[in-house]
Design a protein that fits this description.
Structural class: alpha+beta
CATH architecture of the largest domain: 2-Layer Sandwich
Shape: globular
CATH superfamily of the largest domain: DNA ligase/mRNA capping enzyme
CATH topology of the largest domain: D-amino Acid Aminotransferase, Chain A, domain 1
Number of strands: 24
Helix content: 25-40%
Length: about 675
């Protein structure tokens, strides 16, 4: 018995650690499949020895203790987690148990299990008033302000209904990949998977940062509602859709076990066709009255279960671990693998991100490892297989000298990344030049990595300004260039001079300044000279600019070499200030758009205001000139009234623009 108790305590301790990593730090150290296996072991042991169950056991908890960083919200109805089925047999046992308890044949609803973060939303008389995370199931974190930034979450319903709904916030695959690329380009750590990106975004203390993340949401059920009584789960889904809430349209009512398995097997095969991540199928009793009768355990409802798809993982071997040097000097370990097919494509390498990940996952050169695709897109090494070692494996050591220039590397305190701090490092210079010409920056067609490398190796290009000194004769002296390709590249380089200031700023490659931050900087400062003259404190007043970003900008413009580069780019005619079309008068004005607009989308009006020279902020402050508000303006409208900032309705906005000779017509 002592051995059993010790085993239970070890499992509890391990699960508490992983709960903290997953829910609080948004930094899981094991896969969901491994976590589920640990939990199942604990549940099985406690079932055999019920006298050993304690109220603080992870098996009795739904999620995590709410963070003290947020205010708490007590759920009107508990927001429980789901029990899992890992096999057809597990699912059939659930099916038989529920049928037996019902005493007759019943129907079920099968829904896709979105891999995101569960949230609870309260609407009162049609208005969104509060939202929370699951927390421990009884009490969640108040993330109302952050939820308001999600465009697919209506702030006003199509009726004056009062109800609580439950949903899943997620980031789709394409946006996740884009977000991680932007973070890498800015020298920031990348997210492990879309679920953690969504969770980390929703639990930001500054809603302005959440607003920059591409969050989406599906509502999957009703916690409580007043008014007409609904009979079934599929009726509930159609009802919330009629209110203007977004549901996942992929669900099916099934009347027998074979139909349930057909749905599961169908979507297990087709899961990669979806634009978002799913990790299984949720099977629910369709009859809402029967759901209530079946009730719940302390941890999960008895009327629903999640069938978890097995992760597609393969075994391969690490041939070597190379080190890449990025444009900000970040040294990134890159595993070279024996080629293996994962999700239909051949993978031969995988980034290991930083030395902490290599050490924590104990990945050695020569190791056999488990490989999968994070987000079904990015190759990721999940763990090593120590049991397959033969003693010839080599422990990875992060380079103490840059592999490109030989300079001593440093790892700043509090950061996970080791860096080369030599500003003349050839690898950094090359990556900076590739970034400058990339699609998100100056977008110079024909200046991809191979051509930039060739120009650098030939000595024709040393800085971004040198692109604008190139002649046709220079290009014809290189391999792969003929008359037409040389002419095309020169035209593309000339055309890049018309890119706006925000693109130029992003192209400079200032550490931590991604595309969105560059846009905010351009609109706030209006010119590069003004931006370069701002102090750290002044920079921090700009939306999306925190202390680290502000310091990075100050450091960049204090560097004489960077000052020289900016002056050279000016001489070549690149745009160094925000330009509004002639005859407009929105320059210098800061707008905030809030509420539900009828005549056009928020994105359309925000884009138009920027085009006309105005700045658009995500929050109301004393620097805001006008707030454009539709129904459901919420806290931004309240803040505008408190500060005495003029508020324009849609009709008043049109009049405002016409008075300044600016007509807005989205057609």
């Amino acid at each position: 018995m002592k051995e059993v108790q010790e085993r239970i305590e070890r499992l509890r301790s391990e699960l508490r650690y992983h709960n903290y990593q997953y829910y609080i730090l948004d930094n899981p150290s094991i896969s969901d499949h491994e976590y589920d296996a640990l939990m199942q072991d604990l549940i099985a042991l406690e079932a055999k020895h019920p006298h050993l169950i304690t109220t603080d056991s992870p098996s009795q908890r739904v999620g995590h203790t709410p963070s003290a960083k947020f205010a708490s919200i007590t759920h009107g109805e508990p927001l429980l987690s789901l029990s899992n089925a890992f096999s057809k047999e597990d699912l059939h046992a659930f099916f038989e148990r529920v049928q037996r308890q019902a005493g007759h044949s019943i129907s079920f609803v099968c829904e896709l299990k979105i891999d995101g973060l569960a949230v609870s939303l309260d609407y009162e008389e049609g208005l969104f008033v509060r939202g929370a995370t699951r927390g421990d199931g009884a009490v969640g974190e108040d993330i109302t302000s952050n939820l308001r930034t999600i465009r697919s979450l209506p702030l006003r319903l199509n009726s004056e209904a009062s109800l609580n709904v439950r949903g899943e916030v997620f980031i789709n695959r394409a946006e996740f990949a884009k977000l991680n690329r932007q973070r890498e380009e800015a020298g920031e750590s990348i997210f492990a998977n879309p679920r953690n990106a969504a969770a980390g975004s929703l639990r930001q203390l500054d809603p302005r940062l959440t607003a920059q993340r591409p969050l989406d949401m599906f509502v999957y059920g009703i916690g409580s509602a007043s008014g007409d009584a609904l009979q079934t789960q599929n009726e509930a889904l159609e009802y919330v859709r009629s209110l203007g809430l977004k549901i996942n349209p992929t669900f099916k009512v099934c009347t027998n076990f074979e139909d349930i398995m057909d749905f599961i097997e169908d979507w297990q095969d087709k899961r990669n066709e979806l634009p978002y991540e799913i990790d299984g199928v949720v099977v629910k009793v369709n009859d809402l009255q029967l759901q209530a009768e079946l009730g719940s355990t302390a941890r999960s409802p008895r009327w629903a279960i999640a069938y978890k798809f097995p992760p597609e993982e393969v075994v391969t071997r690490v041939k070597s671990i190379d080190i890449q040097v990025g444009r900000t000097g970040a040294l990134t370990p890159l595993a070279q693998l024996e080629p293996v097919v994962v999700d239909g494509s051949t993978v031969s390498r995988a980034t290991l991100h930083n030395e902490d990940i290599v050490r924590d996952r104990d990945i050695r050169i020569g190791d056999y490892v488990i490989l999968r695709k994070a987000g079904d897109v990015i190759p990721e090494i999940v763990r090593s297989l120590p049991e397959k070692r033969d003693g010839n494996e080599v422990v990875f050591q992060m380079a103490t000298n840059c592999p490109a220039c030989g300079s001593v590397t440093v790892r700043p305190e509090g950061e996970a990344v080791t860096r080369c701090v030599n500003s003349k490092c050839p690898a950094q210079l090359l990556e900076k030049l590739i970034h400058f010409a990339s699609k998100g920056a100056l977008d110079i067609e024909g200046l991809g990595p191979s051509n930039v490398t060739q120009l650098v190796e030939s000595g024709l290009v040393k800085t971004a300004a040198d692109f604008y000194n190139l002649t046709k004769e220079d290009l014809l002296s290189l391999e792969r260039f003929a008359d037409k390709s040389a002419d095309n590249l020169l035209r593309a380089i000339a055309a890049s001079k018309e890119q706006p200031l925000s693109r130029v700023l992003f192209g400079l490659g200032i550490r931590l300044v991604g595309a969105e931050v560059a846009r905010d900087l351009a609109m706030a400062a209006q010119s590069l000279d003004k931006l370069a003259a701002l102090s750290k404190d002044e920079l921090q007043k700009i939306p999306s600019v925190g202390g680290k970003i502000a310091q990075s900008i100050v450091d960049y413009f204090a560097d004489p070499e960077n000052q020289s580069l900016v002056e050279e780019l000016k001489k070549h005619g690149l745009k160094m200030q925000v330009e509004a079309p002639a005859g407009t008068s929105l320059e210098g004005l800061v707008f905030v758009v809030t509420g539900r607009l009828e005549g056009f989308s928020r994105a359309e009006i925000e884009g138009f205001l920027r085009q006309m020279g105005g700045a658009v902020s995500s929050s109301v402050s004393k620097n805001t000139n006008y707030v454009i508000a539709g129904p459901g303006g919420g806290s931004k409208l309240t803040r505008a009234n408190e500060l005495g900032i003029p508020v324009l309705s849609e009709i008043e906005l049109h009049e405002f623009l016409e008075e300044r000779g600016v007509g807005f017509d989205k057609s």
